[in-house]
Amino acid sequence: MMQYMLFFVLYLGAVHSAPLPSSFSKFNKQRTELLEAGVPEVLEAPADVPTFKHIGRLDNVQEGTEVLVEGTFTGRFDIDLKCESGSFCVPLHICVRPAEQAFVFNAKFPSGIYDLEERRYFFLEKLTFFRVSIVVRLTHFEVTVNDHWTKMYEHRMNFEQAKQIMVKGDVSLDLLEIYQPESMEEPIDTNEITKKL
């Protein structure tokens, strides 16, 4: 074992003492010239600016509430059910990523930390119609795409915290509607009760 350690140390010494290739010295010279000219050493990546962004209000989110989004897309886009403005909280984040062939589902906690994402295979083609229905259930969001494919995404936080819907990205929005569930109880006619007595 000692022989192998000695060989490794000698090998590392040989690597460190090896002369630098000439291309490195050319690079170093160019770097110095750029710094002297005032070009910053670390360039910031360009901001990812979505081509479309719409924020709508969600009131009285309850079990049975449905959010319906329809349109066409040319690239990546997001559908978020968000908490109050200024909060990091996102009870449901859906990201459509055609380049990765993925639907990505996630949630963002009030601390600003995302949960583990869940991915599903992406089956739509660009420039085609899409219809995403999000129905709030007691334990999960039921997400249906084009009345064909469904994903159950379990709640990571109280769904009643959702106060906004945001759609952004490379998308053309045709419809964004919110439907509240119909009351299950029928009004009681007190006149009918007294007639039977």
Write the layout of secondary structure elements.
Layout: H1 2-17, H2 22-36, E1 53-57, E2 66-82, E3 90-97, E4 102-108, E5 118-121, E6 129-136, E7 140-145, E8 149-154, E9 164-179, H3 190-196
Antiparallel strand pairs: 1-9, 2-3, 2-6, 2-9, 3-4, 4-5, 6-7, 7-8
Annotated CATH architecture of the largest domain: Sandwich
Could you give the distance between the termini?
Answer: 99 Å
Beta-strand percent range:
35-45%
Number of helices: 3
Structural class: alpha+beta
Describe the largest sheet.
9 strands, antiparallel
Count of discrete domains: 2
Outline the low-pLDDT stretches.
1-21, 42-47
SSE pattern = HHEEEEEEEEEH
User: Which class of the largest domain in CATH terms?
Assistant: Mainly Beta
What integer is the average pLDDT? 79
Measured on Cα atoms, how large is the radius of gyration? 28 Å
Roughly what percent helix? 10-25%
Shape: globular
Number of strands: 9
> In CATH terms, what is the fold-level topology of the largest domain?
Jelly Rolls
